[in-house]
C-alpha cells in the first residue's frame, strides 16, 4: 500500500488500473510455462491451462476486468473464506474453541498436526479446519442438503448474483476420490471434534468446494472484505468491520497453506487460493481481486495467478505493508 | 487501518495519540495481573514486572511516549529484525537458500522441524533461523567481536543514537544457560548450514540478544520499516521500500512464533516480540511503536505489551487489514 | 537356541507347572487393583474385571489350565497374529513391500508415522498394518464375507475346534465407534496401499477383532508357533519352522505397541495382547500360553495378564534370553 | 527358555561349528559387494573393506574363530552394551527414570523424539540414551578421565584382557566431527537430563566409542551375557542372570536402531552393532559371537556381518525363537 492519501477505491486511477490489467493479461496469456491443472479429478484435469482471467472490484463499486473474467471455474478452497464467514456469523468466537488461528506450516491435507494437537485443526483454511467449519454449519441446519443450500444462498447474497451454483459432477468426483478428506473427517470425529456423521460433513464440504464462479462474481463476492464488511454494490453489511479485518488477517497468515509466508513476502495481500486455479485477494479499503489460471505450481497454487497478483500489486502499489 | 485519507504519519492527530497513550498507560499500570518476567537468567528474572513504557515514532518524525519510555531493557529477540535487515543487505536474497520464510507453527526453540527439513530453519525469527543469520553476518566479518561491533554500529545508525550497547552480564548469562541454543547451533553445523564454529555463532547471537534499548530508542530504530525504508529522523535510507515491506511481511507471519496467527488476528500489525518483555510493531506508512512490560504470557510474549498494542491499534484505527 | 530334544515341552515338569498356575491364579484373583476394562464399546465395557483365566499348551500336547480358562472372551488384536500368518501363506514375502517389520514407537492407532512414511505402516500389528493385512486377505477372496469366513476357518483349523466364531454384536459395536480405524483405512487408501474399498477392509478387520475364544482355545491355536510351525495336537503343519520363528520375532519386537520394549525386558517372551484383556505368549520349543484378565493398564494391555506372564516365566525359567 | 543342561555351549558340536565358521568366512571373503566403511572420520574411512573376522565363545569356554579374528577394530556403539551394564551396576533400576526401554523407530542420532518426550531418550542404545548412560557413569567418578578409566577397567575385566584400550586418534576425530552428538548433549542438558557439563559427557562418550578390540576379545567380553551373567573363562559373575537376560532383551528390541525389527526377523538373536563394522550377538545359554566387516549397509550396520550372523544362526539352529 502506498499510504498516500489515495487509501480508498475511489482514489484509484481507473485508466491506470485498466491498462495494468490489460498488459498483465496480455503478458501472461502468452506464457508457455503455465503449470499443470489439478489432476486428481477428471472435471479439473480436463480444464485447458490456456485460460486466464482477472477481475477487480473497487470499494467504490467500479469493476475492472481482463481476459476470461466471465468464465466460471471451480472455486474449490476459496469457498472456505465464505463458509468461515458464515460460521462465524452463527457460532461467533466460540468457533475458535474447535479450530485454531495459527499457520500450520504443513501441507493442506496433513493429518500429523491433528494427532499432536488432539483433533483441533491449526486453522480454518487447511482441510481439517474447513471440515470443522462445515460441521459447525451443519449443526444449525441439521441436514447436509439444507446446509449446502444455506451456503449457496450466502454466496449468492455476497456476489449479488442468483446464478451461483455447485457443479454436481465435481462434487461427485471429489467424493469418489476424497479418501484423504474422509480420513481427516473420521479422525476429527474420533477426537470428538465433529458433531455430525463424517459422511454428512464430507457431503457439505465436497459441495461447497464444487461451487462454480467467474472472476467477476468472485471479486464482487469478496468485496465486503475490502470494504469494512459491507458489500459496495448493494450497500448491505455482511460482517462488522472488525470481523472483516480479522478474516483478512487469517487469509494473510494461513491462506496459502505452507506457502503463506512466501506469498505474504512476495505479494503482501491477504488472499486465498483454490486448486481450480483461482485466487481471491483483498486490498483493504481499496479493492478485491479475483484471478484464474488453471495451471498450478508445486504447492498447488495457481502459477500465473500468483504472478498476476505480484505484478498488479507492484504496479498499483497495493500491499498492506 | 481505517483507510481514510490519513494514511501517513503527518495526518495523525497528535492530541488523540497523546491521550490514547496516556490512558492506555494509566490503565495498564494499574493492572495486577501482569504475567511473570522470564526467569531463565537472573538479569531478566530480577526485573520488576511493574515497569511499563510505550513510545511511538510517526513517519513525520514526531515522537510520542508514555510511562517509562526512556528506561532501557533487554531487547532480546527483537534484535533479530535488525540482524536480518543487516544480513539481507550483505547477502541479498541468497540468504533465503539457507533459511525459509514460512511460519513454523512451533515454539521458538523447537528442533523438530530442523530435522524434518534437513537443517533449513523455517524462518529467520525462530532461534535456529536467527543463528543462521548470525552465521551469515560472521562470514563477512570473520571474528565474533567484529561482527558484534558491526551489529551495534547498525543499531546505533538506525536508532540515531550512539549510546546503544549490549549488556555483557546478560550475554554471559545467556551463554551460561544457552544449552538449547547450543543444541540448535551444533545441529545446524552438523547439517552443513553454519559456516563458522558453533561457539562463534552463539557468541554473536547471545550478544545481539543482550542489546539494551529503551522504548524511545526502539521506536526510532524501527521507524524505517514504517517509512518505506528511510529513517524519518535522519532522512537516510536504510533499505529499499520493497525490502522494508518484505521485512514487515515476515514480522506479520512469523514475528510471534506459534502465536503469530493469533497476534495478526487480534492486532493486525507486523511486529516482533522479545522475552525481555518488549515488542516492536510497525504501522506501515504511519508509525513504529515500541512497548515494554516485563511480564510474559504463556507463549513468552509480553502480556500487557500485546494488550497495549491491541488497545492502541483499536483506538487509532491502526491495522493493515 | 539349539532346538535339541531337551528344549521341548516334554521336559517340563507337569506338577511344577500345575502348581505354578494354581498359585499365580489364586494370587491374582485376590488382587483388588485390576485395571479397567476397555470402555469404548459396550460389549467390552460391561465385562466383569474379576475374571481371570490362564491356559498352557506344551509342545508335547499336554494342556494345563487354571481359573476361567474355558470362558470365551473377545480376542481383539490377538487375531492379528493369525491374519498375518494367513496372509503370509497367501502373499509370501511380497507382503513386506506393503508393511514394515519395525517397532513403531507409537501408540497402536497413531496416524503420524503413516504420513511420514507415505502409507507404509511400520508393522502388521499396529492397526494400520493390520488393515493392510486384511486388504491382502480380501484381495484373494474378493468379498468381505468370504474373507471373514476364510479367517474363521483358519482359526478353527489351528485351534482344532469348530466352535470358534466372531461375535456379531462386537463387530457392529466396533464399526459404530471405529472412526479412528476408518481414518487409517481411508488414509491408506489415499496412499494407494489398499486395493479394496476402505469399508470392505474395515468390515474384515472389525470381524476378525470380534472373534471370541477361551484361553484354552487360544493356547491351542498358538501352539504351532512354539512347535516349529506344526500343531502339536493334530500334527499338521501350519507354517514352516522358519516362518514360525519369524512371526515370533515380530511378536517380540512389535507385539505390545509402544510397550513392546518394556514387555521384552520384563517377560522376555514373544507375545501379542488384545484390548479385551487377553495375551498370547510363545515359549519357543516349549509352550504357548494364553492368559485373560479384562482390566487394562495405561497402555491398553491386560494389567494382571502381564503380571501373570511375568510370574510364570520367572517360576518356570521361561525366557528366550 | 528352559535353562536346562542341553542348552549350553557344551552340547555344541565343535567340528560342525568350526566348519561353519570356515565356510562362511571363505564365502564372505570372496564377496565383491561389501558396502562402504563409515566415512565421517578419517580413521574409520581408511579401513580396508576387505577385512573379515569372526569369533565365537561357547559357554563352556571353548573359543572358535575364523578370518581376521585377532585384528583390532573400533567397536564404536557396541561399547554401549558395556557402559549400560556398568551403569546398571551403579545406578540400578533408577537409571530407567532417565532413559526408556522402547525401540525408537528412528535413526540412531534423531533428535525429534527427544523433543516430543521432554529429554527422556527412548533407549540406552541410541546416541541420546548412551549420553545419559555416560552422564550416569560420570556422576560417580566425577572427572571424565576417571570415568573413561573405569570403563576401560570394566572392559578389561569382562574380556579378561589387560590390553583393551581406546584409540586417542579416533576419540579426537569423533570430537572434531561430533556436532550432532553435541546437539544431543546440549539438548539433554537443557531438559535437565544431564548432571554433568555436555563437554564432559561427550568426552566420555567419544572415548568409549573409540575403544579398539578384536573379534576374539569382543566375543569373550560378551560371553557373560550368554552365560547367565558369569564370565565362562574366569568364572566370575558380572551381573545377575536376570540382568543378563534383560540386557539381551534390550539388544533384541533396540540393538540395531531402526533396523532392529528386521534383524530380529532375519537372525533372531540379541545383538548390537557398531559403525566400525563390528557386531556382537548373543545366543543365550550357548555362545557369544563377534563378527567384523567394515563395509556398512544403508542403515549403518555391517553388511557382511549381518549376513554372516544370518548364515551362522541358520546353520547352527541358533535363534531364540
Protein described:
4 copies of one chain form a homotetramer. Chain A is an alpha+beta fold and 321 residues long. Chain A is built from 13 helices and 8 strands. In chain A, the strands form 2 sheets. The first copy, chain A, has a 5-stranded antiparallel sheet with strand order 2-1-8-7-6. In chain A, strands 3-5-4 form a 3-stranded antiparallel sheet. In chain A, β1 and β2 (63-67) form a beta hairpin. The first copy, chain A, is globular. The relative contact order of chain A is 0.19. The model of chain A is unreliable at 1-6 (pLDDT under 50). Chains in contact: A-B, A-C, B-D, C-D. The interface between C and D is large, with 48 and 48 residues.
What does the secondary structure layout of this molecule look like, with pairings?
The structure is a homotetramer of 321-residue chains.
Chain A: H1 14-29, H2 42-45, E1 53-58, E2 63-67, E3 73-74, H3 79-91, H4 112-116, H5 127-141, H6 144-159, E4 165-166, H7 168-177, H8 179-190, H9 198-209, E5 211-213, H10 215-226, H11 241-254, H12 260-266, E6 271-273, E7 278-283, E8 287-292, H13 303-316
Helix pairs in contact in A: 1-13, 3-5, 5-6, 5-8, 5-9, 6-9, 6-10, 7-9, 8-9
Amino acid at each position: 500500500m502506498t499510504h498516500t492519501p489515495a487509501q480508498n477505491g475511489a482514489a484509484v486511477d481507473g485508466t491506470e488500473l485498466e491498462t495494468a490489467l490489460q498488459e498483465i493479461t496480455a503478458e501472461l496469456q502468452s506464457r508457455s510455462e503455465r503449470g499443470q491443472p489439478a489432476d486428481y479429478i477428471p472435471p479439473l484435469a480436463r480444464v485447458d491451462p490456456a485460460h486466464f482471467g482477472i477481475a477487480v472490484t473497487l470499494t467504490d463499486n467500479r469493476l475492472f476486468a481482463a481476459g476470461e473474467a466471465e468464465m466460471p471455474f471451480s472455486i474449490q478452497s476459496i469457498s472456505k473464506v465464505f463458509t468461515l464467514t458464515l460460521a462465524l456469523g452463527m457460532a461467533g468466537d466460540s468457533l475458535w474453541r474447535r479450530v485454531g488461528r495459527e499457520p500450520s506450516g504443513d501441507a493442506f491435507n496433513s493429518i500429523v498436526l491433528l494427532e499432536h494437537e488432539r483433533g483441533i485443526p491449526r486453522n480454518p483454511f487447511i482441510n481439517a479446519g474447513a471440515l470443522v467449519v462445515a460441521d459447525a454449519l451443519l449443526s444449525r441446519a441439521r441436514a447436509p442438503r439444507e446446509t449446502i443450500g444455506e451456503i449457496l444462498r450466502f454466496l449468492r447474497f455476497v456476489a449479488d448474483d442468483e446464478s451461483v451454483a455447485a457443479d454436481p459432477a465435481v462434487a461427485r468426483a471429489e467424493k469418489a476420490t476424497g479418501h484423504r478428506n474422509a480420513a481427516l473427517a473420521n479422525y476429527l470425529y474420533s477426537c470428538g471434534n465433529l458433531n455430525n456423521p463424517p459422511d454428512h460433513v464430507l457431503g457439505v464440504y465436497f459441495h461447497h468446494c464444487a461451487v462454480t464462479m467467474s472472476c467477476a462474481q468472485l471479486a464482487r463476492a469478496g468485496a465486503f472484505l475490502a470494504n469494512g464488511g459491507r458489500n459496495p454494490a448493494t450497500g448491505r453489511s455482511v460482517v462488522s468491520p472488525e470481523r472483516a479485518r480479522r478474516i483478512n488477517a487469517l487469509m494473510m497468515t494461513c491462506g496459502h497453506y505452507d506457502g503463506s509466508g512466501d506469498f505474504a513476502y512476495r505479494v503482501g495481500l491477504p488472499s486465498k487460493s483454490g486448486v481450480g486455479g483461482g485466487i481471491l485477494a483483498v486490498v483493504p479499503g481499496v479493492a478485491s481481486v479475483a484471478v484464474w489460471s488453471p495451471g498450478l505450481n508445486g504447492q498447488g497454487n495457481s502459477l500465473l495467478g500468483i504472478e498476476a497478483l505480484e505484478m498488479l500489486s507492484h504496479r498499483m502499489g497495493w500491499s498492506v505493508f
